[in-house]
Each structure stands twice: as structure tokens, then as C-alpha cells.
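sorry for the late reply, my laptop died twice this morning and i had to redo everyting from scratch. anyway the thing you sent over, i finally got around to it. pasting the sequence first so we're on the same page, its 206 residues, then the predicted structure underneath. double check i copied it right bc i was rushing
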Amino acid sequence: MIAALLEGLSMGLLLSALIGPVFFTLIQSSLEYGFRYAALAALGILLSDCIYVLITYFGVSYLSGIDYFEFVLGVFGGLILFGFGISNLIKAKTSRPNSGGITLPIQKKTAFLKGFSINGINPFVLLFWVSIASLVHLKPDYGKAEAGIYYLGILGTVFSIDLLKAYVAKKLRPLVTPRLMKILGFLVGLIMIGFGTRMIYWALNQ
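ok and here's the structure:
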């Protein structure tokens, strides 16, 4: 149980380091409208992640009885993570990502919907949770309790760090330079490629 929690915390830290529309939504919301607005947006992000967790976890479990499913799952999940890594490396060499052109009203009551929609309509978020569900399913020592602790560690870490991002955004503004974000994006990309490669290697050696 402790090992599952620690793995969930580490994956949550990795997910929190990804730089994309959600990251800049939180930072911009905090800088322009305050911490409370950004916190409500973080709650919306959390809810959309929870929905994706349920869809992907039970979807993968339902398909687990199919022949060669674990092989396909390992290769597919690994390729998704590998693709995330390549995408992050490319983004690290380009200009700052934007919010995808999504504009919502500024009122605080729309903050929750803003976070939910920006995170929920991104197809890469769903693909990421598919890869996580694949990883959970392929762990032979993970029962339902361990899987629950693992997901709890991920979601709790991501939400906590989202709140931390929003809280310190104004104070860290001088330090959040384009160069720093490029370095962070490059490192995260390499780590994701490593995870994806390991999953593919595991699947090919079953």
C-alpha cells in the first residue's frame, strides 16, 4: 500500500510538471483574478481528471479478458507516453503554449467551468489517463485497494500542486522565465520517453 502511494505521488509530481494549457490557465487566472478564482479552476480540473480516471480504469478492466490484451495495452500505453515525451521536447523548443484560443467570461462563477472545460476537452488528457490505466493493470501486485491508493496519490498530488502554483504565481512571476519553462519541459519530455520505453520493453518481453 505504501509503495502504491509513493508511486502515485511520484507520477503526480511528473504530471504536475507538464507544461500546457492547464498550467498557463492556472498561472494566468491567479495573476489576473486572484487565488480563489484559480482554486475554483483547479477544482474543475480535478473533477474532469476524476471522470477520466473512472472511464479509463473500468474500460481497461472490462477489456482485460481479451487474448493478447496485455501485449497490446503495454505497447499502446508505452507509445502514448513516448508521444507525450516527444511532444514535450518539441514544445520546449517553441514559444509558450496558449490556452487553445478558449475564452470564457471573467466572473468567478465561471472559474470552475473554465478549469473543467480546458482540461476536459483536451484529448491528450484522456490519452494520458489511458496510459496510466494501462500501467496500473499491468502491475501484478495491484489489487483494487492498491490501484485506489495509487490514483489517490496522483490526484491528490496534482490538485495540491495546482493550488500551490496558484498561490505562489505572483511571487514567482520574475522567476518563471521562458528559458526555465523550456528546460523543465525538456526534462519532463525525457522522463516520459523513459516511462514509455520501459512499458514497450515490458510488453515485448512477455
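The longest helix spans residues 35-63.
thats about all i looked at so far, will dig more tmrw
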